[in-house]
Amino acid sequence: xxxxxxxxxxxxxxxxxxxxxxxxxxxxxxxxxxxxxxxxxxxxxxxxxxxxxxxxxxxxxxxxxxxxxxxxxxxxxxxxxxxxxxxxxxxxxxxxxxxxxxxxxxxxxxxxxxxxxxxxxxxxxxxxxxxxxxxxxxxxxxxxxxxxxxxxxxxxxxxxxxxxxxxxxxxxxxxxxxxxxxxxxxxxxxxxxxxxxxxxxxxxxxxxxxxxxxxxxxxxxxxxxxxxxxxxxxxxxxxxxxxxxxxxxxxxxxxxxxxxxxxxxxxxxxxxxxxxxxxxxxxxxxxxxxxxxxxxxxxxxxxxxxxxxxxxxxxxxxxxxxxxxxxxxxxxxxxxxxxxxxxxxxxxxxxxxxxxxxxxxxxxxxxxxxxxxxxxxx
Length: 378
Known about the structure:
This protein is an alpha/beta fold and 378 residues long. Helices cover 36% and strands 22% of the residues.
């Protein structure tokens, strides 16, 4: 079967996210990177395209040229899906144009910079016949998918407590220097949206809480931290969560957790047991029971769920990581493009990005109104 022709917007030069997406796209031999716009400067984009050994004519000056030129090509030659790896403020205009012109889309999170923009994309996608994925990367980990399956199967009983934490310390060298914190795009509302910490990593935790539990957050109460009066963007925060049946949860996110690298942990507790997972040790899922020893579940074994095993590429004992997780999402997108009735749940959909934007705005609103409870309505 011919590979799906993939275009990429952004992600050139030394972009970490670019490497992650390119490796993931190639992992299951489902995609072929065909062209794109890798940099705002065309010369740099061409240089990067040459490095990827792409046809020079498929490395475009901008998105408009990509769309016009590709649509003139025969259907079996043109780009079929486009990955958006640009700064946040470009997600909406790029995704909108791609949807309007019939391209499948894979978009980095957050989906847009406002909830209203996200709703526009949602309406466009519902009227189209294309696939739209939002790369909440961590949902692709086999042990996260095993966790989701075990919770759905009732292995830990009725959920009583949801605890998600995402701690980083990367912004410490910038936030305490007035010049530096004014210069980074992450702290510029025009480029990043109304939130830095919650918008960047808090949405991962929010999406994960809903993904593994199968429940929707119904109400939130937020307390955010900005540190300096001239800093318009949160860089730390705690959000109380209420799910259905008044099930309680807490979401903690920080970019000033000194010394932390990428400490994303998920802990779900039921009346019969608990499950714990740590992103920095992603091949271990811990099952806790009051009357049994701690159990450690690892990927690749035949007794695991089909959903977990779909994303396994190596025998047990061979560690899989962030590239594999993103690769599993790309594989889910590929299967959906080939047959839209299959692989539901194997990749985060546009609606997940829509809920993420709603969460960001409700969180900021809760904080600014004096740390009050706000209903999460779509």
